[in-house]
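Quick question: what would this complex look like in 3D?
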Amino acid sequence: MGVLSRSTAMAVTLSIASTVGGAGRPLSAAEAQEPAAVTSKDELAGLRSQLEALKEDYTTRLAEIEARLDALQPPIQAEAAVPGGAGPAASPPASLPIYGGAAASSKVFNPDIAVIGDFIGAAGKSPGGGEPSLDMHESEVSFQAVVDPYARADFFLTFGPDEVGVEEGFITFPTLPGGLAMKVGKMRDAFGKVDAMHNHVMPWTDRPLVNRNLVGGEDSLADAGISVSRLIPNPWLFLEVTGQVYRGESAVFKAPTRGDLAYVSHLRAYRDLSESSNLDLGGSFAYGHNGVTSDSTTRLLGIDATYRWRPLRRSIYTHVLGRGELIWSRRQDLPRSVDAFGAYGYLEYQFARRWFAGARFDYSDRADEPSVADKGGSLLLTYWPSEFSQVRAQYRHTRLGEGRTTNELLFQFLFAIGAHGAHAF
Amino acid sequence: MRILSSLRAGTAALLLLLCAHPLHAAVNVVASTEDMAALTREVGGDRVKVDFIGRGYQDPHFVEAKPSFIRTLAKADLLVVVGRELEIGWLPPLILQSRNARIQQGADGYFDASLTAKILEIPTTQVTRAMGDVHPLGNPHYWLDPDNGRRIAEAIATKLAALSPPDAAYFRNRYADFDRRVAEAAKRWDAAMAPYRGLKVVTYHRSWPNFCDRFGLDVVGYVEPKPGIPPSPRHTLDLIREMKRLGVKILLVEPYFDVKTPQSIGRETGAKVLVMPPSVGGEKEITDYIGLFDYDINLLVSAIKEAGAR
């Protein structure tokens, strides 16, 4: 009833407006065209009086209608004051409420969302526990969007079997003055090649032994911090230097006091050898307190080298990648200081559009017991049904420092839905 | 005293550097593919310096985001992209890492060439990845219609004029000249293709809708069962049956795909397998946009004659 009354009133108002407008337009036209002033003046006066009469007529009629409607309708002002959208669902509002802008456009600015599932299965004897037989290892949800003309933001939330965490959440200012790019937030560190990798972009189901023993494994040195990087211009190669400052609370570092920050730096040099092959070299350094005593620190030094070959004309069918990483750790366990070393080597060959074979060799001392060294080797086979899913099998042989030997078969399903991410390089 | 003199020397060197740098420098353009580079060169002439990322003979969906391209992008004044999500897998991280504010998406130096072009195959229903690697914004291989080439060139000329106002007339003239040359050449291409209007063809990927639309070819099937999905035995058998039924005698393959499946289809059906480059630079002799159509139409017409398709 309330709606009806409102729309009737509106219709009446509209008809008045159109009548007034309709009478007014020819009038002004006649005024402009008629050269005989006397006749036009008379006409004008006539029309004006007509218009007045019309107006009066409508005003009285409108008042009458309104009075009648008011009589018909018990006072429901209280309800009418509620915005249309909040009213009962049965009566659609005459006009949509405006809550600070058009409601539909909010979707336009929603971030790109993707979900990546990482399922790992394991078989074979592993006396040290190791991976569970079947494990929804990780579900990663990413939200990525441009913040404003100066920045973008990326969030990666991970849901493990029994924990939820912010794997990364940072803002990037890609074009600061001086050719600088800056990231602020919680992020994976730039030490070496593997640390920065999310689980689903690794070519293996696990991380190399050296990363597990010396650089904190899956969690790496990921921490809250600030990262600044810059290209060093030169005519020969791509040269990028990155400096990062972290709070100092990660799988490797523990800050006894607020001022005990951790630092990571990385230098990357890249050069195309030909249009199908290239060389990628890196050097990394990390330093921070390890929490054993208030003064004890850990230093990490790493070098990495990657060679890639991919012929452009057959780029979707074949490629070769060879990579090696060497890492040295000096961990102060005062009064002594423990030096450990580890490395891995990896070779990957794509032999068909959707098939990849790989082999990895692992060696690593333990960070706190360098006399105990773990060794291992893996063979890998990966199949891509499409760009958005992968199935991987890994045979892993490990000879642990204590003398135990394990032979395991791991398999992995990776699957992504949502926004199309960039391909890893 | 020594500090002062070295300061003076430094200032002099700096001044010299500034003077050596021409006041009216060429616009640095980076194109995401060789086609866009070729069109930019047509209108930009010697007032632009054009670089590109993806080569004409590689699959434009799968260019690698090599750091060397970051160096190229770092000094660009203008980035010309094909758009329609063709480069979604590799260009965004390159732009982000270029540290170049001029070419970030939304900035003046980011130019999407598809905005004034005629785009085909824009999905009208909900798209899902069950359809393969679909492009939700329409088919990105739109440069293969010469009329779109003219539209892109005009838009690039306008963009270059905005970036370098003193050269506006130069770019306009170059565009007018290019437009005239393409229109003239198009008469030749249309005439060459006129006898074969309605000819049924099969292509590997959906790279040719604009080309076939323009020159009246009828695409009746694809070697890929779905965009981006490699051929499956079952789909191949279905395709062979369909090609035999319709009497398809021409099978077009982009140079970056494996020809093994197309060749076995060709043997079964008697169709001619034609490796036809969809881009400038796809073959050594294709050095410009007009040359691309000259090459492709020449290749196509002689193949049609040879296959006795008409």
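Answer marked as accepted. Residues 1-38, 74-94, 96-102 of chain A have pLDDT under 50 and may be disordered.
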